[in-house]
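testing teh design pipeline on a random one, pls ignore if ur not involved
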């Protein structure tokens, strides 16, 4: 019996106050296994980078996509996360027959889908997607830090750390902040930079 062509799907960046939400889809190659795959949050940044390189070189197919801040504010973070997942699966060079999605819900894909709570700990393909999404989003936040200096995006990646909140009070809301999120929304009466 032929194995079902399965993609793991996960997102990164649902919680931050700034920046896009990213999603990745990965179809692993059983003939080219990758040791050490797990939830990206449990890995040191250097280990995530190392594994991301292996995933890109050994996976049968992989794709990364995102939903931007305007989409997050327009449709909410959950729907934007699901949209990013749909885009990632649609961008795969090999269409999967099944998508395994980390979490308690899966968006509609052109294939069958199954949501798995803590799937990034139990399903290697989801772990691989978790790693790629996190690595790509972190890289984007470092790039955005150059365009929006002073916020510390290169350090906290948009999460609501003390450093970020202090910068938000000092510099105001910038164009990559999620205006539908607190405590960004309550600061909208303050300085708004472009």
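output:
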């Amino acid at each position: 019996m032929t194995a079902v062509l399965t993609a793991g799907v996960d997102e990164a960046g649902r919680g931050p106050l700034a920046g896009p939400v990213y999603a990745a889809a990965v179809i692993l190659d059983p003939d080219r296994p990758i040791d050490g795959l797990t939830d990206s949050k449990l890995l040191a940044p250097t280990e995530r980078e190392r594994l991301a390189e292996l995933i890109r070189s050994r996976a049968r197919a992989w794709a990364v996509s995102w939903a931007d801040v305007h989409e997050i504010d327009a449709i909410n973070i959950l729907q934007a996360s699901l949209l990013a997942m749909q885009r990632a699966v649609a961008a795969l060079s090999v269409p999967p027959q099944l998508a395994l999605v980390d979490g308690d819900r899966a968006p509609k894909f052109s294939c069958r889908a199954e949501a798995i709570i803590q799937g990034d700990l139990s399903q290697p393909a989801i772990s691989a997607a978790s790693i790629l999404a996190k690595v790509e989003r972190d890289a984007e936040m470092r790039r955005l830090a150059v365009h929006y200096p002073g916020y510390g995006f290169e350090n906290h990646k948009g999460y609501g750390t003390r450093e970020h909140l202090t910068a938000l009070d000092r510099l105001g809301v910038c164009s990559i902040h999620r205006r539908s999120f607190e405590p960004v929304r309550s600061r909208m009466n303050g300085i708004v930079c472009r």
